[in-house]
Design a protein that fits this description.
This protein has helices at residues 43-55, 77-91, 97-112, 122-137, 143-162, 195-203, 209-221, 225-228, 274-281, 299-309, 315-318, 331-342, 347-354, 359-370, 385-390; strands at residues 2-4, 7-14, 20-25, 31-33, 236-237, 242-245, 248-250, 255-257, 265-268, 406-408, 414-416. With 425 residues, it is an alpha+beta fold. It folds into 3 domains: 2-59, no CATH class; 67-162, no CATH class; 195-416, Orthogonal Bundle (hpI Integrase, Chain A). The protein has a 4-stranded antiparallel β-sheet with strand order 1-2-3-4. The protein has a 3-stranded antiparallel β-sheet with strand order 5-6-9.
Length: 425
């Protein structure tokens, strides 16, 4: 997306038919193509119209896809029951509903058939489990995806007998109970940054300030990216050295909901992070979002791109293998948790601060840290002074008394004012 005078203006492309078409970024990070401009529209006019709709993107009505629409054409007995089951899950604002619809349509219905759940047999669920194993062996599915499909199928079977809703509850037994699910495969290791790699990243002149700031806060607070996306200035309690996590961005509903686990938590502020947070909250309204995160689409690719630009090019961060995968934005959270485990912080405190419901999740980081403390480097190092100074509004005087925020754009440009491509609170 191009910018002029610090304001996003969208992008103009040429369609296959030769017409000019505007592409803008919506408030939630999604890209939207405008209706192609009439033939004969000049490049300048197309750019002006695209810039206009970039400024007025909130007026664009973008219909939200519903998972029920994906199975609307299924009028069989099984399909009608599934739509009732799915509608109940949508009403309860569960986040897996779109995956549930895809699982039913692509994997479960072909095996269980179109009949009523009253007629489901254990042998059908055994057949489904075997079919998922076959797809994994043929490379059509990952083993984790197969187990996710199985989780949908077994939940359907359980709800057919135990649901609170009488229109969904239609039998006395659970036909999937006791049936072995698809096999587990090899676990894929998550990635993390060493402290030396992080410092190399935030000290590089080739990385925009916005990315340095976001990565530093993401690692030092190990807050999930969905929580970080809606973190407000008022959530940072510098007096008590706590970051209060009370909400998260839900990418499926495109709205704000509860954090993972359904409960609020406090994250202790690392001493090295506090000067940066002071600079970020200084002179700002409490309702403002603390950070300007990249769009959801650019989070992983952008991180990999700027890591390479800063010469953080360790093969494990950028290559996929059968047991490893390239770094994702979410791995910045894992980086901070790993650093705390390497520092040998109390286990229970780490579990609570990380927001892990099960201690087994925290244990993975503890096991990882146990074998790598030697030579790992000093965790949570002091942030470079240029990063702190450039985020301090008092170092950017303006007509409004130095309260205008200054961010580095993705192309290295400096943008005055807060960008608007973020979820509304």
């Amino acid at each position: 997306m191009t910018e002029q005078n610090g304001r996003a203006r969208g992008t103009v492309i040429t369609t296959k038919s030769g017409k000019l078409q505007g592409v803008i970024t919506l408030a939630d990070g999604r890209r939207k193509r405008l209706k192609p401009f009439p033939k004969g529209t000049s490049q300048k006019m197309a750019e002006e119209r695209t810039a206009y709709w970039t400024e007025h993107r909130d007026e664009l009505e973008v219909p939200k896809a519903t998972p029920i629409a994906d199975v609307a054409d299924d009028d069989t007995l099984g399909g009608k029951w599934f739509k009732l089951w799915l509608a109940d899950r949508v009403a309860r604002r569960l986040t897996s509903t779109r995956d549930n619809a895809a699982h039913w349509r692509m994997h479960i219905r072909p095996v269980l058939g179109t009949g009523s759940p009253k007629g489901w047999k254990r042998d059908q669920f055994r057949k489904l489990s075997a079919d998922l194993d076959r797809k994994v062996q043929a490379g059509e599915l990952s083993w984790k995806s197969a187990r996710n499909v199985w989780a949908t199928a077994t939940k359907m079977a359980n709800d057919a007998s135990e649901s609170k809703q009488s229109k969904i509850r239609c039998r006395d037994d659970d036909p999937a109970q006791g049936v072995k699910g698809p096999d587990r495969g090899d676990d894929t290791d998550t990635q993390f940054l060493y402290p030396s790699e992080f410092l190399k990243f935030v000290e590089s002149e080739k990385v925009p300030l916005r990315w340095k700031t976001v990565v530093a806060v993401a690692i030092y607070s190990y807050v999930r990216d969905a929580e970080l996306r809606v973190l407000q200035v008022r959530d940072v309690d510098l007096e008590h050295d706590q970051i209060r996590i009370t909400k998260a961005w839900n990418r499926r509903t495109r709205g704000i909901g509860s954090p993972k686990g359904g409960k609020a938590r406090d994250v202790p502020i690392e001493p090295a992070l506090k000067p940066l947070l002071k600079a970020l909250v200084k002179g700002r309204d409490g309702a403002e979002l603390l950070l300007e995160l990249p769009s959801e689409r650019d989070m992983a690719r952008g991180l990999q791109r700027w890591l390479r630009n800063s010469k953080v090019d360790r093969a494990g961060l950028h290559d996929d293998t059968p047991t490893t995968r390239r770094i994702r934005f979410h791995d910045l959270r894992g980086t901070g948790i790993t650093w705390r485990a390497v520092r040998n912080d109390p286990k229970f405190e780490l579990q609570v601060a990380a927001g892990h419901r099960q201690f087994s999740t925290t244990e993975r980081y503890l096991h990882l840290a146990a074998g790598m403390r030697k030579g790992f480097g000093a965790v949570f190092p002091a942030l470079p002074k240029p990063l702190l100074l450039r985020n301090n509004p008092s170092s950017h005087p303006s007509a409004s008394g130095g309260k205008i925020r200054v961010f580095g754009g993705a192309d290295g440009t400096r943008t005055r004012g807060l960008r608007r491509d973020r979820p509304a609170l």
